[in-house]
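Structure ticket #2291
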Amino acid sequence: MTTEALLQSAGVRPTANRLLVARCLAASAFPMSLMQIEDALDSLDKSSVFRVLRLFAEHHLVHEIDDGSGSLKYELCEGNHHTTDDGNAADEDEHVHFFCTRCRRTYCLDSIPVPHIALAEGYTVESRSYLVKGLCPHCRKP
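Resolution: structure written out below.
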């Protein structure tokens, strides 16, 4: 699916700024912070990038990852948002993330889905994330 089609399928008008941010995220091998996106797109200022990311989050076009580094990381969400059988909110491509404590990079572990967690009665899930911390394969090498 093209970036433009992805935005349209989520009900987001594909303006030039939105396409730039979406393409930047799509091209990245890792989730990116606001500062990293801003650095990659020197034609956009921080407030423009932030507004686009907020809009994308509202429309479930990005996963926001709090990896404990002090800044949220963003990755393009290419799955559909839906409600599970138990009434919880979920994105089809929810997966585990790994934060390397040495290189401080966040990795997407796309093949490992976020495990289901049964909540006590009266609680409603609005978002889910699952973060594992440790050493990545590169940093584990002696």
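Closing remark: The beta strands are 32-33, 62-65, 73-76, 81-83, 89-91, 95-100, 106-113, 131-134.
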